[in-house]
Design a protein that fits this description.
This protein has about 210 residues and is of the alpha+beta class. Helix content is about 35%, strand content about 25%. Strands 1-2-3-4-6-5 form a six-stranded mixed beta sheet, with helices on both faces.
Length: about 210
C-alpha cells in the first residue's frame, strides 16, 4: 500500500461497513516499516500467463504478476479491489484489517491478501499470527481456520459500530516445518483457483486474450 492508495482503500472500507480509519492513521501505519506491513490487491483484464510460482516469500506480487492481474511495475498499477494490514505485537503478527470490494468478494481475493500478510509476518520475524473477527462473520472464520487459526477467546462489545463481540483467534507457531508445508499446499490450491478463474474470464471474453500476429 502506498500513500496515494489511501483514498481507494477508504472507499472499500466504507463499503465493508467497518468503522473507518482516518487517512492519517493509514499514513502512520504504512510508514512504520519496522512493525507494519500494509498491502493492496489490484485487478485488471489482462490474460493469465506463466507457471505457478515457487512457494517461498514474498508471494502476493509474484502471484498476481504470473496470473496477469497486475503489471510488472508500479507505473502499470490497476484498480484496487482489496487491502489488508498486519503489525508486529511482540511475537505475534497481528492482522489489523482485511477487506475486499463487494463486486470482487468470494473470488479468492481475501485469501490472497491473507497470504500476503503472512509473508509480512515472516518479514517481521513473527512467531505466531493473531486477529479478531466478528462472531457473525462465519465466512472469514472458515478462511482463518483453514490457515491454522483457532479460537482462543472472545472480546465483548469489541466493534463500536454495533457493539458486536469479537472472536479472538491465534495460530500455533508459523515457523515450524509442518505449518510451512500446510501453507505451501494451501497456496498451490489458491493459485490453481485463481488461474482457473482467470482462464474463465478469457474464455468468456475472447477479445481480451493475447493477439496473434
Amino acid at each position: 500500500m502506498r500513500e496515494d492508495d489511501i483514498p481507494a482503500v477508504q472507499v472499500i472500507e466504507r463499503q465493508s461497513q467497518m468503522t473507518p480509519w482516518s487517512a492519517q492513521t493509514y499514513r502512520r501505519e504504512i510508514q512504520n516499516r519496522q512493525a507494519c506491513r500494509y498491502v493492496v490487491a489490484r485487478a485488471d483484464t489482462r490474460p493469465p500467463n506463466g507457471t505457478p510460482p515457487q512457494p517461498d516469500y514474498p508471494l502476493l506480487l509474484r502471484m498476481l504478476q504470473r496470473l496477469g492481474l497486475i503489471g510488472p511495475s508500479p507505473d502499470q498499477r490497476a484498480l484496487i479491489v482489496g487491502y489488508g494490514g498486519i503489525w508486529l505485537n511482540e511475537t505475534s503478527g497481528h492482522i489489523t484489517t482485511i477487506a475486499v470490494a463487494p463486486p470482487h468478494r468470494r473470488r479468492g481475493v481475501g485469501e490472497l491478501i491473507l497470504n500476503a500478510l503472512i509473508d509480512g509476518a515472516y518479514e517481521l520475524n513473527a512467531q505466531y499470527l493473531s486477529l479478531e473477527v466478528r462472531v457473525s462473520n462465519l465466512t472469514a472464520q472458515r478462511l482463518y481456520l483453514k490457515y491454522g487459526f483457532r479460537p482462543v477467546g472472545q472480546r465483548a462489545h469489541y466493534y463500536i459500530d454495533n457493539q458486536e463481540d469479537a472472536l479472538v483467534m491465534w495460530t500455533d507457531p508459523i515457523t515450524t516445518t509442518s505449518y510451512k508445508e500446510r501453507l505451501r499446499e494451501l497456496r498451490r490450491q489458491l493459485y490453481e483457483r485463481l488461474r482457473q478463474q482467470a482462464d474463465q474470464v478469457v474464455a468468456d471474453n475472447p477479445s481480451s486474450g493475447p493477439s496473434v500476429g
